[in-house]
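User: Hi! I'm working on a homework problem where we have to compare a predicted structure to a textbook description. Could you give me the structure for the chain below?
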Amino acid sequence: MEGLLEAFITLFVIMDPVGNLPLFISLTKGMPLREIKKNIDRAVFVAGVLLFVFLFLGLRIFEFFRINLNSFQIAGGIVLLISGVLYVFGLSNKYSKLQGTDLSVPLGTPLLTGPGVITATLILVQEKGTLVTVIAAFLTLLSTWLILMNSNKLYKILGEHWTNVISRIMGIILAAIAVDFIIGGILNIVGAVV
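Assistant: Happy to help. Predicted structure tokens:
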């Protein structure tokens, strides 16, 4: 299971359930507890379906649309870098708005499983293999579900200040992962040409 911890950390940091706590709490404010739990289940399910669809079929989808994985890796790295910078400066999730009481959108996608997680998943399958990526994805979704289920307790313990600090640290880590993705994609393209 070499690379499992690295794969898990990569997906967990990009999914960033801790950084999404303030948004989640604001979206569910005033909802009955049963409705909140239902929304958590639904959002994590949607995030999981998307994650596993791209994990198993992502390369085929790319082949169908004639998208090169290296190009997607660079583009995804740029998107991740922008997301990381937004987290660092505390500007992430300011644009998300609740439509009704179904949190599948924006929470399930794009906040939990968005372009960054999809990019990371495809690259991890390529670098670490399918089995390691499947286990890492499952552990990430389980961790995310547990964090969201205990969101009120965690937010009370951490408070707004420490939640923001953790989110910004995650942003720096996310930016570093993004730079690695971009460099890896460029090196792969250069290596294929040389």
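For your comparison, note the following. The two ends are 33 Å apart (CA to CA). Residues 151-193 form the longest helix (43 residues). Good luck with the assignment!
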